[in-house]
Amino acid sequence: MQPVIGIDFGTTNSVVSALRPDGSVQTLHQATEEVFRSVLCFWNGAQGQALHAAGPAAIEAYLDDPLDSRLIMSMKSYLAQRSFRETRIAGRAWGLEQLIALFLRELLKPFAEELKGARVVVGRPVRFVGDAADHELAQQRLVGAFAEAGLPGVQVELEPAAAGHRFAATLDAPATVLVADFGGGTSDFSLLRFEPGPPRQVTALGHAGVGIAGDAFDYRIIDNVVSPQLGKGGNYRVMGKPLPIPPSWYVSFARWHLLSLMRAPKMLRDITEVARTAEEPERLHRLLRLVQDEAGYALYRAISGAKVALSRGESTLLDFRHEDFSITAEIHRADFNRWIAPELAGIGRAVDAALVDAALPASAVDRVFLTGGTSLVPAVRALFEDRFGAERVVAGGEFVSVAEGLALMGGAT
Predict the structure, then answer these.
(1) 179: closest CA among 350, 337, 410, 340?
(2) Which domains does the chain have, with CATH numbers?
(3) Which residues fall within 8 angstroms of residue 111, CB to CB, at 6 or more apart?
(4) What are phi and psi of 262, to 5 degrees?
């Protein structure tokens, strides 16, 4: 039997799995981590040589010296953007495929023996991120990045379909299944018909996707709890006339690494100038401190922890401190649900689109399988329970189901 490796290259995390000769699937761990953060960090060594790290090591390197390093995150989010051609790092031009290939080589380095002679199956979302996303270009770039990493001719499969294959291993009767796969940047939905077999038969009935996922939920907490303490919604004066503090500044809070872009001299000068006539200048001084000190990662860890806590209880305490800036705020799940209502509506529309694509009513769905970290948010699960009934909704394998399913798909072809 040819070895099969499934690779889930994600916006936030990446996972590698292997199909074993006995038909079982094993997640391949890098060190002690089941998932590997999809990040790169570049910096100059003591002798001036260019150095880099990936995954958890990249975050550690960045936090050690944020001012003199360059963190690259969410690379997958740029695959469908024609406007992204290259970026310059330490005087060298890097194309997107080159950056992803560098990351993939680091991700897969411990599994070189596993990869020898293996069929490699990689995932892609139903819809890549972006308002004008070029999905064909995105897949070409994705395949090109794997080829540059030394893996030409990879097999590409839809991520929710892969999660569905993993779930199908638990089925003992024919079923029509809606698979909802929530990643860091996208949420994807596939309707699949499973016949247990043997051999197991899978028929794709319909698909849909939307560029909404866990990052957007984090941003809602930032936008409603943190940004107002950093000046958002306030005013400053020009020739005695009150003007709103530019709300565009706070868009950078959508992802923590974007805060580093605000360190540009012009941006820092602009914030300083506005602070001089702001009604509450101390709030903009806090913003400057957060940006200059590269405190975004610590802030987002606190935010992510609050989101997880809200999945377990009706309220939580957000406690974040940096220098002279501190936030201690009680957040209620009811408020969080209200803040994420636009995202929930977008997810609901995508689910409806998948049903339309499959030409099926909700009543024809036998089971609903939720996977990905955002599936743990109670309001997300409630959306599916309301549409399909709680008895039909199950969840599991939140971080590894796609990679394991990709390996299973490779073994079935």
Answers:
(1) 350
(2) 4-172+397-412 (3.30.420.40)
(3) 5, 16, 18, 28
(4) -75, -5
Cα 199 from chain centroid (whole Å): 34
Quick: pLDDT tens for 74-117: 889 889 888 888 888 877 889 999 999 999 999 999 999 999 99
Both tokens of 373, joined, read: 């970290």
Q: Please name every residue paired with 327 in a beta bridge, in sequence order, or none if there are none.
A: 320
Let me know: does 15 contact 33? Beta carbons within 8 Å: no
Q: Which of 6, 12, 5, 14 is nearest to 104 (CA)?
A: 14
pTM for the model: 0.82
Dump pLDDT digits (tens) for 306-356.
999 999 999 999 999 888 888 999 999 999 999 999 999 999 999 999 999
Q: What angle do CA 377, 38, 247 make, to 5 degrees?
A: 65
Tally of residues, the chain: 413
| Both structure tokens of 214 | 């866990």
Contact (Cβ atoms closer than 8 angstroms) between residue 370 and residue 394: yes
